[in-house]
Amino acid sequence: MAETEQRVRLSDAQIDALKRSVKRTTLTKKEIAGLPEGTRTYEAVGRAFILRPAEDISKILDERNTSSEGRIVKLNEQREYMEKSVKESEATLRELVRQHQLKA
Predict the structure, then answer these.
(1) pLDDT, tens digit, for every residue of 49-59?
(2) For residues 80 and 8, what is the distance between their CA atoms, to the nearest angstrom?
(3) 3 HSE (CA, 13 A, CB side)
(4) CA nearest neighbour of 42 among 34, 53, 27
(5) Which residues of the chain, if any, have pLDDT below 50?
(6) Which letter does DSSP use for residue 35 in this model?
(7) What are 76-91's pLDDT values in tens digits?
(8) Helices and strands in the chain: count of H runs, count of E runs
(9) Which end of the chain is less packed: N or C, by CB atoms within 10 Å?
């Protein structure tokens, strides 16, 4: 049960990180859209920067957002399942304790 609660907290942290990532990529995409035509844009790749057209960077950001949002949905589903599992375990444990007290 404690392990499941720890996994729930880990899922929450991952969801928060993904939400921040989505906000950051959305803001970046918005700023890139406002750039004048022909502006040189670069993509960070490790320690290097690669010259890319703004449209390509916008597509990459869209893909990252889509991926992050999909991952958020999956993590929320897993989190809900784990919370349900914890509640069921607690209810089972309470029932066992109650039955034991009735016998004594």
Answers:
(1) 999 999 999 99
(2) 9
(3) 0
(4) 53
(5) none
(6) S
(7) 999 999 999 889 989 9
(8) 2, 2
(9) C
